[in-house]
Amino acid sequence: MTKTADPLDHGRMSLIEHLAELRTRLVISVVAIAAGAIACWILYPQILDFLTRPYDGVCEVDFDLTDDNAECQLLVTDPLEGFNVRVSVAAYGGLALAMPILLWQLWSFISPGLYPHERRYGLIFTFTAATLFFSGAALAYWSIPRALDFLDTIGGQDLVSFFSPDRYFNFVVKMMIAFGLGFEFPIVLIFLQMADLMETETLSRNRHYAIIGIVVLVAVITPSGDPFTLMVLSVPMYIFYEASILYGWLRARRKRRASASA
Asked: Across residues 57-81, what is the average pLDDT?
């Protein structure tokens, strides 16, 4: 009797091979991040100007700047703060620039565990995941002035905001990362369905729990905590949740048609 070949047999590797593959992927990722960090270190003045624009609106309201040449500036309280900010901007910027390469390395590492017809989605996965991440970061950048305005006014009219560079950039980076990771939500759900680790029916049955879970998750991962930011991220994440369910139904229907025609 002929033994039926397992479609995953050729994708199986020994533990040593897995570790060697992981090391290769990590080395490539570190090199990509380092190259991106060097580029961001060189372009730091332009990046600094870009990241401080959301602060301008709050600063102009607080100080009533009528001079067009006047600039909103951050208050340095530590001699090393300027250097630390530049290092942080370079590191996070390098991570952002290397994101497509990191996602490709991630896919290349996990793809041997998938079926052959699922491995061809590598470029689609990388492009979609990178686009979603940068879209989320862009949405965060757009919402930051509203969040800063809320945080600036919630304490009352007698408080004047003086932001230090370290804390301001920490806030901005956390917002952009939170939104970027939040936009990866559909990729995670789709992959779980592709790997048969989660059923589409389970996602469909638990919509009401998903709404609560998404709102709680967004409240935890976003540093501002204002209602506007909560809504801006929660709504897209729930839309992504529904989109992953639609993908699951389409995938199941395609499999049924393939089985019927076989």
From this structure: 66
* Highest-scoring range by mean pLDDT, 33-37, 46-50, 70-74: 33-37
Cβ(186)–Cβ(237) under 8 Å? no
**Alpha-helix runs per DSSP H in the chain:** 15-42, 44-63, 81-97, 99-110, 116-119, 122-153, 165-182, 185-194, 200-205, 207-221, 227-261
CB 11 within 8 A of CB 110: no
Quick one: which of 107, 170, 175, 122 has its CA closest to 145? 175
Q: What is the pLDDT of residues 3-12, one digit of tens each?
A: 444 444 445 5
**Token pair of 90, please?**
């370079």
| CB distance 99 to 133 below 8 Å | yes
Q: Which helix (H) or strand (E) holds 225?
A: none
In this structure, is the dihedral angle defined by the CA atoms of residues 208, 210, 215 and 217, taken in order, positive or negative? positive
Rounded Cα distance between 179 and 225, Å, is 13
- Please choose, from the candidates 214, 208, 190, the residue with its C-alpha nearest in 3D space to the C-alpha of residue 200: 190
Query: What is the rounded CA–CA span in Å between residue 185 and residue 174?
Result: 17
Three-state secondary structure call for residue 74? coil
Q: What is the pLDDT of residues 129-166, one digit of tens each?
A: 999 999 999 999 999 988 888 877 777 777 677 788 88
Characterize 209-219 residue by residue with b for buried, 16 or more Cβ atoms within 10 angstroms of its Cβ, and e for exposed. ebeeebbebbe
Instruction: Say if CB 182 and CB 237 are below 8 A apart.
Output: yes
Mean pLDDT of 167-183: 91
Burial class (CB in 10 A: 0-12, 13-18, 19+), 15: exposed
